[in-house]
Design brief:
Helix content is 40%, strand content 21%. With 454 residues, it is an alpha/beta fold. The protein folds into 2 domains: 341 residues, Alpha-Beta Horseshoe (pyruvate-formate lyase- activating enzyme); 77 residues, Arc Repressor Mutant, subunit A (Orthogonal Bundle).
Length: 454
């Protein structure tokens, strides 16, 4: 990759798990009552009745990983488990009462935090409580994030028996110096053990999450980590760029010095080394940051243009309603976003009052919905077709001017009908989307809001 292109396009930018992105939400347009109204209106359409996704945020961790950007609550007191599950089930009952029927569930994902902080019996109580009042779609998918250090055989077997077939293990990097810097000490033997348990039990899609750009990380570290990972033959791989945003996450991301972090061209070389190893070993690139074997549903969704992206990242389910349960969880009705309270205490207080714990959100305008569709197309399929709505927009000439600059750099191909991101431009897809992000173009904020795109 040309160093001048890296320097040019390595700017702060969103990851586009939503549009508008969270910093550009207009909180004045959303509250709990507006959220209930927009959810109900879309739920009672044909698309809404086809099925929903459920994301459950399980925020507890026993220790702080200093690379982490998640909303979490650090504690070693496992007495928090039962009350928290009780609250999530109460929240689900509030949604059941609102929806008025047994919803069809197409997807459940347990994220965190550390879902496997919870005892298998508590996770079983949670999932059983959700499913007992719902209809499980024939093509459902259930998945969870497992911390290799505390994911037991019982965790894996219990969730498998409940219908889970996909698990992702957070690996990050195997180099001891890197692990010490990010306070995430786990050996390859530990990961290998939980991976093999999952394989023996029958999980059909195992993913390993790796991160590049971590403090003290070198190309040799990346190559060693990937060689060990490929030796286990997971169906999916995530290769995330470390997002250094200490102004958002505070002390947790200041456990090392800025000069310890690979940047710019140096950081990008880590990604290119990893990508080359994945492609050489039968993995296909899927969207941004993800790789999958040809047999995996994620690659098949890419192949058949049914790949979707939401707050859970890339998904094979195209259903547009996602209900987020738990502290800080975000819900999506396609026409609106709503986020729960970010502290366990405030979240539990709201639910105990019999109220949804929504503390902010955004009601999408017709412009937002138009741009959301184009940005989703680009993030999932690296192309989008123009339509009259964007061609008629007063800022279209400014959008086109920015895109023509990227075309001149050989990153995209413009036509009368739309945009196609060229192979050399796929690594800059966030930058392409930024050209269409009218809220970003109009923003006058001088405060740092996003991680760097490279």
């Amino acid at each position: 990759m040309k160093a001048d292109l890296i320097n040019k396009y390595n700017v702060p930018g969103p990851r586009y798990t939503s549009y508008p992105t969270v910093p550009d939400w207009d909180a004045n347009t959303m509250n709990a009552e507006v959220w209930k109204d927009t959810l109900l209106r879309f739920y009672h359409t044909d698309e809404g009745q086809a099925g929903i996704s459920i994301y459950i945020h399980l925020p507890f961790c026993e220790s702080l990983c200093t690379f982490c950007g998640c909303h979490k609550h650090i504690t070693k007191q496992h007495t928090v488990e039962q009350p928290y599950i009780n609250t999530v089930l109460k929240e689900w009952n509030l949604y059941l009462n609102l929806l008025g029927n047994r919803p069809i569930i197409k997807e459940i994902h347990l994220g965190g935090g550390t879902p496997t902080f919870f005892a298998p019996s508590e996770l079983k109580r949670l999932i059983t409580g959700i499913l007992s009042q719902s209809i499980l779609a024939d093509d459902y998918e259930m998945s969870f994030e497992g911390h290799p250090n505390n994911t037991s055989y019982d965790h894996l077997k219990t969730l498998y028996d409940l219908g889970f077939r996909r698990v992702s293990f957070g690996v990050q990097d195997y180099a001891p110096k890197v692990q010490k810097a990010i306070n995430r000490i786990q050996t390859f033997d530990t990961v290998q053990q939980v991976h093999q348990w999952a394989r023996d039990i029958g999980y059909t899609s195992i993913s390993h999450d790796l991160v590049f750009g971590l403090p003290h990380q070198t190309i040799d570290n990346v190559k060693d980590t990937i060689a060990k990972t490929i030796g286990l033959n997971p169906e999916r791989l995530s290769f995330y760029s470390y997002a250094h945003v200490p102004w958002v996450k505070g002390v947790g991301q200041r456990g090392f010095n800025d000069e310890d972090i690979p940047k710019g061209a140096e950081k990008r070389r880590l990604y290119e080394a990893g990508k080359a190893a994945f492609l050489d070993n039968g993995y296909y690139e899927v969207g941004m940051d993800h790789f999958a074997l040809e047999s995996d549903h994620l690659f098949q969704a890419l192949k058949h243009k049914t790949l979707h992206r939401n707050f859970m990242g890339y998904t094979t389910n195209t259903n547009k309603i996602m209900i987020g349960l738990g502290m800080s969880a975000i819900s999506d009705s396609w026409t609106g976003f709503a986020q729960n309270e970010k502290s366990v205490k405030d979240y539990q207080k709201a639910i105990d009052r019999g109220e949804l714990a929504v503390f902010k959100g955004h009601l999408l305008s017709s412009q937002d919905l138009m741009l959301r569709r184009h940005i989703l197309n680009l993030m999932c399929h690296f192309e989008t077709c123009w339509c009259d709505d964007i061609l008629a927009h007063p800022m279209f000439e400014e959008i086109l001017h920015k895109l023509k600059d990227m075309e001149s750099d050989g990153l995209i191909q413009l036509s009368k009908t739309g945009i196609k991101v060229l192979p050399e431009g796929e690594k800059f897809v966030r930058n392409v989307c930024m050209c269409l992000d009218i809220r970003l173009l109009e923003s006058q904020s001088s405060q740092p809001r996003f991680s760097m795109t490279i």
